[in-house]
Description:
alpha/beta; seven-stranded parallel sheet; disordered N terminus; single chain; about 45% helix; about 15% strand
Amino acid sequence: MPVDYPISSVPHLRSQNITLLGATGSVGLNTLDVITRHPERYRVFALSGMTQLELLTELCVIHRPFYAVVAHAKDARAVQNTLLASGSDTLVLYGERGLETIAAHPQVDTVVSAIVGSAGLKPTLAAVNAGKKILLANKEALVMSGAIFMEAVGRSGAILLPIDSEHNAVFQCLPAGRDRALAESGIRRIVLTASGGPFRETPLSALNDVTPDQACAHPKWSMGRKISVDSASMMNKGLELIEACWLFGATSDQVEVVIHPQSVIHSLVDYVDGSMLAQLGYPDMRTPISHALAWPERIDSGVKPLDLCDVARLDFEPPDEIRFPCLALARQAAKSGGTAPAILNAANEVAVAAFLSQRIRFTQIAEVISAVLDEMPVGAADELDVVLVADSNARSLALQWLDERGK
């Protein structure tokens, strides 16, 4: 099986060559929707998908990328054979090396990082080190290794644009070309909005017995199961808080979270003169994706115009950290710094997987994370190997907790 694509055989295209890491998830599919609306601008160079192989194969037949990447060699052989039978000349690679190949390929212009979880860290860093334009949806890359990641961005000259709806909203509300600290730019604080998820009004006594399907039934957004559970626990917002600190040069005290059930205001920036700028729109990932793809221009995303009379009202409330202890744990990790966010993230990934497989209750997700944070020492996160060791040790501790207390 080939492990590289001959550069000489890849045509130089006038449109942007796009590598999409995590093509079969909601961000990936929305990105492909935007791309297909602008074939004169964008060309799908490579797609990756680790689990939904049938869907990935269909996407390869439709978009005809030069590369596809899957998790394992046996999966690569199966997908390759199917594609060959369909007349496709897409080459199928596998594993971490395959992901790094398509992320750093010299003919790639833009990399959309939409892999869920810590698996997205290394290929995203490979794209950064290669100086690509990065459209970042993978929170964990910055949560785990923010200092390392941002240093690499500065050194390589990579362009980093957030496509999480909240961070993209903040980016749109910041002064153009801002290269100073928040306070020096006249910014008082960043406000991240959260829908509150499916359990915003659920009685606290009932949270013990909620099911994975209930946790994944998000009232506004269509997302994968892991991210949906994170949204239900508000860990998703906690990870976004940590990510915002790195993206925008903020301290954890300069980033606030407010619950906004309508999910129409995607985030706000508060200025010292009393002005507050907000980015509004229907909850549709194609808006931030199209914004980042075309930046500094704007293109049609396929999203309908916002009808303010249809929205009618905008409600806000502070998050209840008794209901959402994961948010408090994330803020604690942000304040601690160093390897604490990597430990938080690793423990959360293990805990969420255990909840989805019904090994623990929903309320025990925070218990697992808290126990691991209490047990593990926090060190400096100035080398990738140190971060990865902290990640591994946190996972081991979380699994030990599950063996002792899980179902």
